[in-house]
Every structure is written in C-alpha cells, then in structure tokens.
Design a protein that fits this description.
The complex is a heterodimer of chains A (326) and B (827).
Chain A (H helix, E strand, L loop, with lengths): L2 H27 L6 H12 L4 E4 L6 H11 E2 L2 E5 L6 H5 E6 L4 E6 L6 E5 L6 H13 L1 E4 L2 E4 L5 E6 L12 H6 L2 E3 L6 H13 L2 H4 L4 E2 H12 L5 H16 L3 E3 L3 H17 L7 H12 L4 E2 L1 H5 L4 H11 L7
Parallel strand pairs in A: 1-9, 1-10, 2-11, 3-6, 6-9
Antiparallel strand pairs in A: 4-5, 7-8, 12-13
Helix pairs in contact in A: 1-2, 1-3, 1-9, 2-11, 9-11, 10-11, 10-12, 11-12, 12-14
Chain B lengths: L2 H14 L5 E2 L2 H22 L6 H18 L14 H18 L4 E2 L2 H24 L7 H14 L6 H24 L22 H24 L29 H9 L6 E7 L7 E6 L1 E2 L4 E2 L27 E11 L15 E5 L5 E2 L6 E2 L9 E10 L2 H6 L19 H10 L6 H15 L3 E2 L9 H10 L1 E2 L1 H14 L4 E7 L3 E3 L2 E5 L3 E9 L3 E4 L42 E3 L9 H10 L10 H16 L1 H19 L6 H9 L8 H17 L10 H11 L4 H19 L10 H12 L4 H9 L2 H28 L5 H19 L4
Parallel strand pairs in B: 1-2, 12-13
Antiparallel strand pairs in B: 3-7, 3-16, 4-14, 5-6, 7-11, 7-19, 8-11, 9-10, 14-17, 15-16, 17-18
Helix pairs in contact in B: 1-2, 1-5, 1-6, 1-7, 2-3, 2-5, 3-5, 4-5, 5-6, 7-8, 12-14, 17-19, 19-21, 19-22, 20-21, 21-22
Classes of the chains: A alpha/beta (326), B alpha+beta (827).
Chain lengths: 326, 827
C-alpha cells in the first residue's frame, strides 16, 4: 500500500511535466514555424541536462531557436558571438583589480547564466573552445585558482556553420563528444516559410514572447525526468547500440561511454515528454542519430562511398535486435 | 584438418562398413594400419613439399613394406624389408585368401590370407582416395573408390547395411569434402582488410568457418534425409530402423553358404579308388543311420541345387536344441536315440556335420549353426575333420494310418513342389501310371519307390553318364541305369509331379559295422530323396537299389516298403529291440519349455504375414504415417494456442481487482501479471509468423503495432485490440509496473481475424496445416543439434596442431604492422 502515493505522485508530476513542456514548445513554435521535431529535441536535451549543438547553413533560424528557448523560460540568458580573437577570459570572466577595495574582483563572464548561446562556436580558437568545455562538463569555472559554480540548470546551445570553412577551427572530437545532441535545422517547408514571411515581416515575434516557465519549474521537470524508469533490457539495448558503432567497419571512431550515458538520459527525457514513466526502445531509436552521429568518424571506405555517420547509425539501429525479455 | 588426414579418415570410416563380412577384428587393425601407412606417406610428402606424383609412387612401396612386416615378418630382412623368400609367401597368402573368399560365405574367418587381402585392398583404396582428393584435388571423385569399398558389403551380404554403418561412412566422405573445401578456400589468400584490426578475428587465413558450417549443414541434412526417408516409406525399406548389419534379431540375417556342385562331388567320391573311412559312429540303439550332410531343394531342370543356408548367431547348436523338425506333429511317436560320431582326420575340407535326421540336439566344438528349414548344421569357419560330436535324434515313427491321412501341405514353401517348365511331359504321365491305384499320397510315394527298386527294372551303375535336360528322360525311359544321384533326383522330380513336396538329401549311408562301431567309407556317399508329409515331416525314401547289385549299404526304411493290404495298420517300422532304445515318447511339444522355440516363433512372425499384406495397404499405412507426422506441427500449434487462450481467459477479471493486485505486487515482483500479456503477445507473434507477416528484429512492440495497423489497414476495433496487446507487452517488458488491464482473449481473436482477412485463402490454410511458427521452432531445435556438431568441430580444431595459447598473442602483434601499411593513414 505504501507504493500507492508514490505512483500517484509520479503520475501528477508527469502530467505537470507534459503540460509545462507543451507550453514551452508552443511558445518556441510561435517563433520557429514547422520545426516541431527540432523543438522537441531541444526540449529533450534541456530536460536531460545536456548541451545542444545546432549545425546548419546560415539563416535557417539557429540563433532564433536558441533565443526563443531562452526567452520562453524565465531565466538569465547570455549570448556569446565566437570570433577568432575571442579569449577564454571573455567567456569565463576575469579578475579585475578594484581600485577602491584594492582587491582583485571577479567579473563573471557570459557563462554565468542558465542558458548560454554560443554563436558560430567553430570560429573561436581551440583555446577558447576548450575553456567552454570545462564549463559544459563540470558546471564550474576556475579563474586564478578560484572555482565558481555555474547556474543550474545550465545549458549551452552552440551553433556552427558546416560549410563556411574560412577562419574556422573545426570542433575536435573530444569537444563534440560533450554536446549531448546535434541537430540540423534544415530549410523550412514552403508553407512554413510563407507563414514566416507574414509573421516576421511586420514585427519581431521574439519580442512578443513571454516566459511560460520559471527556473523552478524547469528544475522540477528535470527531477521528474530523472525518475523515469529504465528497465534492464533497455539499458542493454543502449549498450548494444553504442557497442555496434564501435565494431562497425564503416566507422573509424565509435561512440564513447559518455555517449551511452547521454543517450539514456535523453531517452528518459524523451519518454517523459511522451507522458511515459518508462523508457522504451523506440525512444533510443528516435534519439540515436542526433545523440550519436556527431561523435563518430566515418572510415575511409565510408567516406569514399559518401556514407555519413547518420546513415551508418540508421543502418545500425535496423540491425541491432530489440531486447526481448525472453 | 589437413586434407591427407581427412582422406585417411574417410577411408577408415567407409572401411568400418566391412565389418559384417568378417568374424573377428584382426582385419580391422590390419586395414587401419594400411590406411595409416598411406596417410603418413601422404602427410610426410606434403610436409617435404614433394611433387604430387611422389605419393602415388612411394605409398605402394610403403604398403608393401607394411604388409611384409605384418604378414611375412619371419622371412623378411630385418623383419621389414621384402626379400625373395617373403614375396612368394605373400603371393601364396594372397592366393589362399582368394580361394578362401571363394569358398566361405560371410562372415568369413579372418585368417591371414583374407586379412592380407582386406588390408591390401583397403590400403589401395586409401591410396586411390589420396590420389584423387589430395594429389589431383578432386575430392568429389574420391567418392568413387570409397563407393567401391562400400559396395563390397552391400553386394556380399543379402541384408542391407545397417544405417549407423552407413552414417559413419557418409560422414567420412562429407568430412573429406569439407576439408577439401576449406583447403581450397584457404588458398584464395587473405582478403585485403581496410577495417580496424580489432574487428579482425582470424590470423593469416580467411575465415572459412561459415562456409564450412553451411557445407556441414547441407551434408548432415542430406545424410539425415537419406536415412529417414527410406525408413518412413515402408515399401522401400526391407530393413527396419535400428538394425546394425548382420544378426540384428529382427531381419532374417545370417550368412549364406554356397555349396559348390554337390552332385559332381558325390560322383567323384563314389568312383574314388581307395575307399577310406570317412567317419565312425556308435548309436544307443546300435542301428545304422544315414548321415545326412545337406539337402538340395531347387531343381533347375537338370540337377538339384541347394538354396542358401541361413545361420544366425542365435542358431548356434551350442546355444541349445536345434529348431524343431519341420512338419513333425505331436501325434507321431518319436524315437529318441543318441549317436556319437567321430570324423576322420584325413577327409578334405568339410564345413558341414554329417548328422542323422532329424537331429534334436548337437554337441560339437566350434561355431556350428543350424539351418532352420533343412536342419543342416554348418559352420563358416570351423571344419569337421577330426571332430567328435554327439547327436540326439528324434526319428518319427509314423503309423501307416498317419501317413495315409497326411496331406502334403507344403507349409507355404512352394519351392519343394516347384518344377521348371519344359520338362519332358512323358515323365508326368509315367509318374501317374506308376502310381495308379494308389489312393493316398503316401501310397503313391511307396509305389514310386517300389517302381524304382523293383518293378521298374532299374540297374545300379556307377559309370552312368549323361547330363543336361535330357539326362532325366534318358535315365527314366532309355537307360534305366544309374547311381544314387539319378535315382534320388528322378524320384524327387516325380514326387513333385504328384504334388508331394520333395528334396534330395546328400550324405552317407549308414555304413557297415566293424567291431562295435559303424564305419562309413567314401563309397558310402549317397543321395536320397526326402518326401514331406504334413504332421510327420520329411521322410527318407530309398529308390536306389541296395545290396550287392546296388549301393551296398543302402537300406530302405521300413515305412517305405509296400504293405500287404491284409497287414493293416502296422505298428511301424523296425519295432526294434527295446533294449537299446533310449526312450520313446510322444513329444508333447507345446508343453515342452523351450524358450528358443518361442524366440523362433516370434522371429518368424514378420516373415510370415509380410507377403499377405497387399502393397496398397502398405502404401496406405505409409501415407497415413507420413500424414500423421506432417500434422504434428499443426497439432502443436493448436495446443499452444488453446493453452494461451486459457491463460488469457483466466484473466478477464473484474476491472477493479486488477489494479489493486498490481499495486500490491509492487515494482519488482512482476511475475503475478506476467503470463496473460505474454500469452497474448506470443500468440500475436506466432499468428504473424504463420500468416507470413514477418517481424523485424529492430521493431519494438509499439513499432510493430504501428506498422501492422498501417500496413494492413485494421479497423478501429482491431487496432484498439492490437494496441492493447502491444502496450501490455511493452509495459511488461520495460515499465516498472505492468499494465493494469491486460488484453483479453477477444482481443487476440479479433486481431487474428483481422490479419487473416488480409491474406489469401491458401495462406490461411497453410497457417493452419503447416504453421510456420512451429516449423521454425523445430528448425531451431535442429540448429541447436547442428551447433553441437560445430562444438565437436571446434574441439577437434583446438586440440589439433596449432599455435599454442601463448603464441597467439605474438601472432596478433606481428599482424598489426602489416595492416597498418595496408591501410595507410587510417588513424
């Protein structure tokens, strides 16, 4: 009988979660038309306490998505435009000498926010990029030997242009691995683009966007996601999927154990967004490409055949059998 | 496995099938040694990188040395090297071997000659197999010499070869083919590998395991089919399953003895110059007795010949009393007598025991076996020369009445009255004329004998000649002169014409009494007819003239002498002095406890009714069996479906009860609700399989439900049922707590009906008659069995010559740089 309150509690929490998530989604979609998959994935990453890498050609609304998400949640948002001359201290903050107090005083950088939008992250030098890394992974900043905790929730939404090669430093594998998922915006459909013209032509819809959730609510959502049940077979399936990338002859570099962790975390959020308190293999299948693809390096053969890691992952998902309790 | 070794093993496997031909195991080890010699030569030649022609040239020499060492060890130089003394001995052994093979019927004794021949032959086969498979790389062709070896037992033994022996041989050949395929593949070289080394499992050779595996599976399936199919078709299998070659107790079994022209031998003996003693005997009643050696039952128009003898191991005379005398009924008085016989040391080769008829018990040293129908006692390896043995006979002493009333019913054996067509028609007329006036078959027989001995004016002449088809007519109508052979044959033929079963017995007359012993000499060799009377059995008749003008010691039995009508029913023949008679009793056969007889009766059962069963019935029974077997999967499917239906039916509980139960069950204890959702899901999966709607491996229950609903356009109700089944299974597998309300029996039924509506009628019928889900399960079991074979294969490979565990590591590290150079800037 003791289990009953827990069950009901979990159910109400789940209902709250679905409700709040829908509100955020609606808010974002009022700005970004016809990209519900992308929006859903963005929310999934947020609830999985991950970081998102948006990769696409300029002008498809990458920054708009990041801003819309940030705006719809009532929390501090900072935006950093990455340029080749950007220094690590420009991100983390600096210790400046205070003439009055005659002491060094820490001036927090843009990472001290709940949501950090890093625009064109691959334009910064590796040194600066790696400064962001520490923040992303450890949720803390160390300046002059003093460590400062970052906000919670903390999410980095980075964008990068794939085709603009001049003056860019491609993100190293290690850094890509820290992003929970990578998504491509893609061009909008004709109808969505038409509507966009109507909406964006007259005014800036972002201005009209009001926060629909508080930081506390997001915290609650995150803790609800953490409670989502992952059964043993599903865990095994996640491990199988990731292991398959390591043995695939099409891939030079497979996914890391951190990828497995991210995959399962995202699957929890994905399940919760669907109103389920347990993860099913379908969650993992839906997330395999965005969560795994950017961490992989195709083999020379696959490159020669112009097979992208996305395709390889899709094939792997089709090959790895779904766990059966029998 | 190395190819030469595989070739040797396959030869050895097929050589095992020779075993029913031999008595004793000496041949086996000698043959294995010969195979080993050839194989070793092949392996060594391969190791030294010798040219392909070296082995076929060197191996015969090695074989010769081996045979010399084994068979003519004493005369060889150093016991091994053939010399001019040892070679002729070897040749002599070979010729004795050939003679012995001609003379003996299987199973032959493994004497040196035969063993030498066998070992040499098997060695040559091994040589040929090696030549084809290893030197010429035509492993399939190597099947020809193996087949030749295999046909030897198949041709010699009338019974089919036992299936285990066949399986061993077939596996040998399949093993050779597999080894050849593997070797061939390994010569293709290594594939150029571009992928990462950690995915590489093998060393320097391509992985032939998979190919070999499929080859093995095909081989095993083919062998299994070749065993099972004939066994299931009753018309094609004379041998039931689970018999192993000779003497399996079910089949007729036993070797057959060929008797080389018995009649010719007889005349030779009679005309011999020196009249040596063949045997001496004493009998308990001191009466002379004809010593019968064997009986000839087939008449081909010119002469009588014996049909094959059957001597199963359980027919050994040492194992107990002989089979009962055929046709002897319980009403007839039987006179028991004991005869002690000793055969002369000097007689030629004799593999039969001369015995008075009918013998009840024989005590003789050696492997002597009794033929059931003729009571001939013979051996395939022991000789009678010098043998002393004891015989108990039970001679029938029928009364005239008994004989008169006896009907000549030939116990279903038509061979005793069958005559070839084209016989002189005058003979039949003559037989009728001679026996006119006789009212019973017995009287006809007596008249016939009387005609030969008295009224027919025949004379005895040992020089009588004439053979061929006309010889009989010549003897009866023109010459009326001859010796025992002609008399016996003629009377037997005429008796058959009168429809009295008859055969010709060969042996010796009772001989003459010298001192207190009866002595039988070469000139006492004799032939006489035996006629059959139901209830009495086979009775000896004596048409050959006796006395000084005839065959001296021949003597007509009392009952064959014509009776004067006034004499009435006589008390029987020679109601001899009661002093010497052992005991004379009517044998109460049914009451006599004789387990062997019961055995024999049982053994006879499959033989007797077999011809009575019409072919149609056999085919019908076979078809019915096949049909029943074919329906097993359908029955299994129905069974599992109804079982699942019961499980589902059990859980259509009131809605309120279930959540409470689930709640109390709590998180981890899922067993309580497990079966129903599971049953519904399993039933769904099986239905899909049966209807040919395959599941994908990467499909979760939810995805499957979605796909099925869309693909087959299920109506709302069925879709909802499907969703219930699917989500129950999903929760069961992945959720903390299983679904509150599981699917019911109606859901499963509805989905099944909706799905079945999407396929053709034939498919629906197939789903019922041959459900794929069950067939796949059966196949899975079969594959597990095959995996066992693979396991064995693995064991053999691991124990074979290969790098030790430590050197594997070294191999890998050696391989690594090579791969790096192959792929260049991989990393």
């Amino acid at each position: 009988m003791a289990a009953t309150p827990d069950v009901t509690d979990a159910e109400t929490r789940l209902e709250d979660l679905v409700d709040t998530a829908r509100r955020i989604r609606d808010a974002i979609e009022s700005v970004i038309e016809g990209k519900s998959d992308v929006v859903r994935l963005t929310l999934t990453v947020l609830l999985a306490e991950g970081h998102l890498l948006i990769e696409d050609v300029p002008g498809v609304g990458k920054t708009m998505l990041a801003k819309a998400l940030a705006r719809s949640i009532d929390c501090p948002v900072k935006r950093v435009q990455f340029t080749p001359d950007l220094l690590p201290s420009d991100i983390t903050g600096v210790s400046a000498y205070n003439q009055q107090s005659r002491e060094f005083e820490f001036k927090p950088g843009p990472v001290f926010a709940n949501i950090v939008v890093g625009d064109e992250i691959n334009r910064a030098s590796p040194k600066t990029q790696s400064a962001l890394l520490e923040c992303m992974e450890e949720h803390q900043v160390t300046v002059d030997g003093v460590t400062y905790r970052l906000e919670s929730p903390f999410m980095v939404i980075a964008t990068q242009n794939p085709i603009e090669m001049e003056g860019t430093y491609p993100l190293p594998e290690a850094q890509r691995d820290r992003f929970t998922a990578r998504i491509a915006m893609g061009y909008p459909e004709a109808a969505a683009e038409l509507e966009m013209l109507d909406v964006h032509g007259a005014s800036q819809p972002l201005d009209k966007l009001d926060p629909v959730a508080t930081t506390a609510q997001v915290h609650a959502l995150i803790s609800a996601v953490r409670a989502v049940y992952v059964s043993q077979p599903v865990k095994r399936y996640a491990v199988d999927l990731v292991a398959a990338t390591r043995s695939s002859p099409d891939l030079r570099l497979g996914a890391s154990p951190r990828a497995t962790l991210h995959l399962v975390r995202c699957a929890r959020a994905h399940a919760a967004l669907s109103g389920r308190d347990y993860v099913i293999p379908d969650d993992l299948q839906d997330l395999a490409v965005p969560v795994l693809a950017h961490r992989l390096l195709p083999s020379m053969e696959a490159q020669g055949q112009r097979r992208h890691p996305e395709q390889v992952i899709t094939e792997l998902v089709r090959r790895v059998p779904v766990p059966d309790t029998r | 496995m190395k190819l030469p070794v595989a070739a040797g093993l396959s030869t050895a496997a097929v050589a095992i099938t020779l075993y029913p031909l031999f008595d004793g195991g000496a041949w086996f080890w000698a043959s294995m040694g010969a195979i080993l010699v050839v194989t070793v030569v092949g392996v060594v030649a391969g190791r030294l990188g010798a040219r392909p022609w070296v082995t076929p040239v060197a191996a015969p020499f090695a074989l010769l040395v081996y045979l010399t060492a084994v068979f003519t060890h004493d005369l060889a130089w150093l016991g091994v090297v053939p010399t001019k003394d040892s070679l002729p001995l070897l040749a002599e052994l070979v010729s004795t071997g050939f003679d012995d093979i001609q003379r003996y019927a299987a199973p032959v004794p493994a004497n040196p000659g035969i063993t030498l021949l066998t070992a040499g032959g098997v060695g040559l086969i091994a040589l040929l197999v090696d030549l084809f498979a290893v030197r010429l790389r035509r492993a399939a062709l190597a099947g020809l010499p193996l087949l030749a070896l295999f046909t030897v037992p198949a041709a010699v033994i009338t019974d089919p070869i036992g299936w285990p022996a066949f399986v061993i041989g077939a596996f040998g050949y399949v093993g050779l083919l597999v080894a050849d395929g593997r070797e061939r593949l390994s010569h293709w070289g290594r594939a150029v590998v571009v992928r990462r080394s950690r995915t590489l499992t093998g060393g320097g050779s391509p992985d032939t395991g998979r190919l070999a595996l499929s080859g093995k599976r095909i081989g095993v399936t083919a062998i299994a089919l070749s065993i099972l199919l004939p066994a299931l078709l009753p018309a094609l299998s004379p041998d039931p399953l689970f018999g192993f070659g000779v003497g399996n107790g079910l089949g007729s079994g036993g070797g057959t003895i060929a008797i080389p022209d018995a009649i010719a031998k007889l005349s030779g003996q009679l005309s011999q110059q020196n009249n040596d003693t063949v045997l001496t005997y004493t009998s308990s009643d001191d009466q002379p007795r004809y010593m019968r050696i064997y009986a000839l039952d087939l008449f081909d128009g010119t002469k009588f010949t014996p049909s094959g003898l059957r001597g199963r191991p359980e027919d050994r005379v040492s194992e107990g009393p002989l089979p009962p005398a055929p046709g002897l009924g319980p009403a007839v008085t039987v006179k028991r007598a004991e005869t002690r016989i000793s055969i002369s040391e000097d007689i030629g080769r004799l593999t039969f025991l001369p015995l008075p008829y009918p013998a009840v018990q024989v005590e003789a040293d050696g492997d002597w076996r009794a033929d059931e129908s003729t009571l001939t006692v013979f051996s395939t390896k022991d000789e009678a020369a010098g043998l002393a043995y004891r015989v108990v006979t039970g001679e029938p002493e029928p009364t005239t009445t008994q004989l008169d009333t006896a009907l000549p019913q030939p116990e279903g054996e038509a061979r005793y009255v069958s005559l070839p067509s084209g016989l002189d028609p005058r003979i039949a007329a003559l037989a009728k004329r001679v026996t006119s006036g006789a009212t019973t078959q017995y009287q006809r027989a007596v008249k016939l004998q009387n005609w030969f001995t008295h009224t027919g004016k025949f004379t005895y002449n040992i020089r009588a000649s004439g053979s061929g088809r006309q010889a009989l007519s010549h003897f009866l109508f023109d010459e009326r002169s001859g010796y025992c052979e002609q008399f016996a044959s003629a009377m037997a033929v005429m008796a058959r014409m009168l429809n009295i079963p008859a055969r010709v017995a060969i042996g010796y007359t009772g001989g003459t009494k010298i001192g207190d012993k009866w002595t039988v000499r070469v000139h006492d060799a004799h032939a006489w007819p035996e006629l059959y009377f139901a209830g009495v059995g086979w009775l000896r008749f004596e048409p050959t003239p006796a006395g000084a003008a005839g065959q001296g010691t021949a003597e007509a039995p009392q009952y064959t002498l014509p009776v004067t009508p006034s004499a009435g029913p006589s008390a029987g023949p020679s109601s001899g002095p009661a002093t010497g008679t052992d005991d004379s009793d009517t044998l109460g056969r049914p009451s006599r406890p004789n387990p062997r007889q019961i055995d024999r009766d049982l053994g006879a059962v499959p033989l007797a009714p077999a011809p009575g069963m019409p072919v149609i019935a056999k085919v019908g029974v076979g078809a019915a069996v096949v049909l029943l077997l074919a329906l097993i999967p359908a029955a299994a499917r129905l069974l599992s479906r109804s079982r699942r239906g019961r499980v589902l039916g059990r859980t259509a509980p009131p809605a309120g009860a279930v959540p409470a139960r689930a709640a109390t069950a709590g998180g981890d204890d899922r067993a309580g609700r497990r079966p129903p959702a599971d049953a519904a899901w399993l039933e769904l999966c099986d239905t899909l399989t049966d209807l040919g709607m395959p599941r994908r491996r990467d499909e979760s229950p939810r995805a499957l439900g979605r796909r099925i609903t869309e693909r087959y356009e299920l109506d709302a109700e069925s879709a909802a049922s499907l969703a219930r089944i699917v989500s129950a299974e999903e929760r069961l597998r992945y959720a903390r707590t299983p679904a509150a309300a599981g699917p019911g029996r109606a859901d499963v039924r509805r989905v099944r009906r909706a799905l079945a509506g999407n396929v053709s009628r034939w498919r629906r019928l197939g789903a019922v008659v041959a459900p794929m889900s069950t067939l796949l399960r059966i196949r899975a079991v079969g594959e597990r069995a095959l995996d066992l074979f693979d396991l064995l294969e693995g064991v053999r490979l691991r124990s074979g010559p290969g790098p030790a565990a430590g050197s594997v590591q070294a191999d890998r590290s050696y391989e690594a740089p090579r791969e790096t150079t192959l792929t260049g800037s991989r990393r």
